[in-house]
């Protein structure tokens, strides 16, 4: 098994190098046979990565502790699902997963029906293969997943209990799918540039890939936040930790990219900008990995410190320099085809403002993340840049972004006249202002909350009007019933309406964030048995403290009966778990969730006489956050769904070559 | 057996800590807004990545002591700025959860907005250039008076397209 497993990695590396060389040779000598050989290599590479994954799954599942990775991240009593998912608990395994996704994507692209006979394929393959060579090299020489220990331990170290949560099963997988996914549009962009194709074929061909990568990146962040909320007993979901920032930055730039490509498709403009955005997004995925694996910044997420980060930094630098070189060498061609704008106030301009704010937000996150390093380098003083900084700096930028999002759907392409601005915005603006006044009257008086909710009201109205007008226009011509008209309108323009659903999802998430950040309540109380804690409308009766044993873990738990306005909601058990094979105990919180708010109960400490200390939080509108996340998934899936309409394979009109 | 002893020790540690902050908690609730304003300024250096308001005293000895000291100072009548100064003098700026708004650290706060402002100005000039350019050479575009007509136009053209595909 040892030989087989290692063979998959080293043969993989050899095949990746071979395929890269043979495809490059094929391109330069215009020999289709070489290209076909390289394409065959891609399949072999995928098989190697898949077999390596299967081998590690097998070793993990059968608890073969003689392997360092199995010993470090699992133990024999671990449930099988966590034994398997320990594959991405450590450095080597998670990079193997990354490599597997990369080879999977490669095969899907190169052998897709739409790309058959396309002269870009060899170039795309070569660019992705360069990535694959890097990853197989790392697996073969830096972070080896199949290292044997000198002795055979009887038991493994076990998996960090914090990672034993369904959220953690899926969070890394979605995040990696998003990270790797961004390599696809990057490869297409580079291939188009190398071939001197300056049209928007690469954008149209990768549109779905970009949305899918974006969706996975969003999901990765959301699952991470959800995990933090239920598992860490801290009551929050986003801490602006360097690693969270590392995955938020490419999300912001990819979002900007998804919007700005529409200008290129429509107006044949912003070509250089779009390519720059995709280079930056791709580079940021590597930068994120560098941050997580290098230990250069203190982070709760950090993997064991190693020199792995350095390799990523070098790879990122090489990739960015090469990409910029290609971009510069084609600069004149791209510049030549610039178009023009009709007016200052138009949908096009609003997309540019959207890009400005999204990239600005990404820059602010980047700057805050690296500022400790800058400060240390410049004046030798370390500083910490934490949550208060990011909240203060990002809030105005992202709120402005929400405003642009609210206004944009109502602006016309080309030109918006004062007349139609008045017509489109008078009612939504009045309603939004009325809503804000009503909020102040009802006692919501924090400025951020009032402005934020006001903007969201505007957003909801403009989006509603957008659907309403579409349905009205359709019905005028087809005389369909409203629902049929709505359905047909949406499925005939999936990208637009999918996008609007995503906007609504973002609006719900923002409502959740504003509510939970501004109106949370918290208390910490020590109470005797039978006594109660009161917070807001809730009364928590502390009934019992007991201990139980589950497997090798000891669990101390409290029975608490919760009443709201005198009405019983039920009995709940916040727990403290002491692990048999892990130093730190962890809190299993009790969450009583409703549309309005979450009651979040943590058992903090206790004494011999039964007195116990609880931390109790009321987090408003948490469910809105999760609901908004769900809408993002629905919207993104709706946009990429392979429907009957508007599903035209983009026609390749670029440079022809003998090889494809 | 070793595990059991270990769990026992941990339990004792937890209980012991509980009784320590218990005495102080009577005066100032560690989860009160008043305490939050003071404690959330300081980063816990135990590696938890949280501030001293969030950091759990049951898993971190460091924050237990720190919280005690904070409460002592608050009882002495020190306000949050005085406490902040006191700690910055001892540990330097690193102890704060966000950089100071003075000296070099001001850069952290200002630069994002300076860059954003500069980029906005650049964007303004670029759009102006594009709009002007358009004035010189008129391009043929379909003008819509408002979005409603635009939507109708789009729907109509997509329907024509559909029909065309059906019959041609």
Task: Give a verbal description of the structure.
The complex is a heterodimer of chains A (660) and B (168). Chain A has 20 helices and 10 strands. With 660 residues, chain A is α+β, with helices and mostly antiparallel strands. In chain A, strand 9 and strand 10 form a beta hairpin. In chain A, helix 15 packs parallel to helix 17 and helix 16 (418-442) packs across helix 17 (447-478). The longest helix of chain A has 33 residues, at 347-379. The two termini of chain A are 38 Å apart. Helix content of chain B is 65%, strand content 0%. Chain B contains 6 helices and no strands. The radius of gyration of chain B is 31 Å and the shape is elongated. Residues 14-26 and 138-143 of chain B have low confidence and may be disordered. The interface between A and B is large, with 88 and 74 residues. Chain B: InterPro entries: CcmH/CycL/Ccl2/NrfF_N, CcmH/CycL/NrfF/Ccl2_sf. Chain B: GO terms for molecular function: metal ion binding. Chain B: Pfam families: CcmH (PF03918).
């Amino acid at each position: 098994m040892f030989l087989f497993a290692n063979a998959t990695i080293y043969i993989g590396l050899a095949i990746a190098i071979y395929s890269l060389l043979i495809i490059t040779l094929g391109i330069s000598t215009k020999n289709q046979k070489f290209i076909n050989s390289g394409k065959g290599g891609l399949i072999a590479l995928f098989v190697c990565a898949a077999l390596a994954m299967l081998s590690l799954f097998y070793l993990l599942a059968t608890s073969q502790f003689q392997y360092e990775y199995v010993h470090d991240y699992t133990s024999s009593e671990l449930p099988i699902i966590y034994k398997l998912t320990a594959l991405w608990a450590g450095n080597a395994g998670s990079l193997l997963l990354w490599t597997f996704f990369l080879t999977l994507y490669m095969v899907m692209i190169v052998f897709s029906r739409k790309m058959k006979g396309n002269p870009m394929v060899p170039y795309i393959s070569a660019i992705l293969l360069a990535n694959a060579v890097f990853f197989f090299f790392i697996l073969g020489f830096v972070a080896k997943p199949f290292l044997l220990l000198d002795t055979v331990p009887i038991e493994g170290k076990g998996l960090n209990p914090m990672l034993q949560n369904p959220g953690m099963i899926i969070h890394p997988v979605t995040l990696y799918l998003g990270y790797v996914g961004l390599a696809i549009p990057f490869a297409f962009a580079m291939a188009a540039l190398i071939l001197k194709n300056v049209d928007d074929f690469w954008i149209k061909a990768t549109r779905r890939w970009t949305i899918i990568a974006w969706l996975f990146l969003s999901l990765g962040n959301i699952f991470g936040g959800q995990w933090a909320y239920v598992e860490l007993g801290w009551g929050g979901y986003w801490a602006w930790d360097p690693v969270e920032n590392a995955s938020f930055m490419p999300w912001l730039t990819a979002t900007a990219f998804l919007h700005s490509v529409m200008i290129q498709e429509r107006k044949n403009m912003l070509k250089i900008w779009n390519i720059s955005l995709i280079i930056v997004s791709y580079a940021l995925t590597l930068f994120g990995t560098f941050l997580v694996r290098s230990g250069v910044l203190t982070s709760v997420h950090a993997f064991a410190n190693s020199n792995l980060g350095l390799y990523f930094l070098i790879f990122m630098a090489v990739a960015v320099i090469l990409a910029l070189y290609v971009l510069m060498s084609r600069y004149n061609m791209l510049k030549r085809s610039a178009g023009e704008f009709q007016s200052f106030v138009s949908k096009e301009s609003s997309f540019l403002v959207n890009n400005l704010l999204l990239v600005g937000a990404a820059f602010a996150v980047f700057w805050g993340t690296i500022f400790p390093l800058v400060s240390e380098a410049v004046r030798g003083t370390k500083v910490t840049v934490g949550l208060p900084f990011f909240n203060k700096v990002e809030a105005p930028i992202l709120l402005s972004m929400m405003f642009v999002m609210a206004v944009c759907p109502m602006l016309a392409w080309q030109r918006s006249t004062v007349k139609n601005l008045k017509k489109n915005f008078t009612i939504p603006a009045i309603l939004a202002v009325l809503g804000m006044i009503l909020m102040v009257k009802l006692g919501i008086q924090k400025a951020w909350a009032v402005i934020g909710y006001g903007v969201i009201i505007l957003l909801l109205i403009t989006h509603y009007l957008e659907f309403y007008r579409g349905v009205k226009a359709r019905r005028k011509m087809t005389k369909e019933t409203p629902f049929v008209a709505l359905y047909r309108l949406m499925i005939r323009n999936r990208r637009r309406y999918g996008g609007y659903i995503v906007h609504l999802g973002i609006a719900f998430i923002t409502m959740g964030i504003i509510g939970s950040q501004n109106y949370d309540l918290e208390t910490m109380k020590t109470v005797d048995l039978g006594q109660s804690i009161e917070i807001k409308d809730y009364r928590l009766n502390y009934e019992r403290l007991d201990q139980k044993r589950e497997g090798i873990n000891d669990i101390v738990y409290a029975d608490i009966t919760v009443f709201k306005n005198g009405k019983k909601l039920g009995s709940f058990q916040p727990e403290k778990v002491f692990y048999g094979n892990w130093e730190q105990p962890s809190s299993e919180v009790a969450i009583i969730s409703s549309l309005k708010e979450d009651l979040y109960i943590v058992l903090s400490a206790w004494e011999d006489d039964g007195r116990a200390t609880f931390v109790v939080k009321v987090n408003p509108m948490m469910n809105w956050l999760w609901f908004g996340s769900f809408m993002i998934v629905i919207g993104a899936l709706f946009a990429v769904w392979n429907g009957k309409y508007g599903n035209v394979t983009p026609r390749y009109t670029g440079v022809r070559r003998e090889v494809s | 057996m070793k595990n059991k002893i270990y769990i026992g020790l941990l339990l004792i540690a937890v209980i012991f800590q509980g009784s320590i902050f218990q005495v102080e908690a009577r005066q100032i609730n560690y989860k009160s807004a008043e305490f939050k304003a003071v404690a959330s300024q300081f980063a816990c250096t135990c590696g938890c990545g949280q501030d001293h308001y969030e950091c759990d005293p049951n898993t971190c000895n460091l924050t237990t002591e720190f919280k005690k000291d904070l409460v002592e100072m608050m009882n002495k009548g020190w306000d949050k700025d005085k406490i902040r100064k006191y700690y910055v003098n001892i540990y330097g700026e690193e102890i704060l959860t966000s950089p100071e708004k003075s000296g070099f650290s001001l850069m952290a706060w200002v630069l994002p907005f300076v860059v954003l402002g500069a980029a906005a100005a650049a964007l303004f000039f670029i759009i102006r250039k594009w709009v002007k350019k358009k004035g010189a050479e008129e391009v043929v575009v379909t003008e819509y008076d408002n979005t409603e007509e635009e939507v109708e136009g789009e729907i109509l053209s997509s329907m024509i397209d559909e029909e065309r595909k059906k019959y041609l």
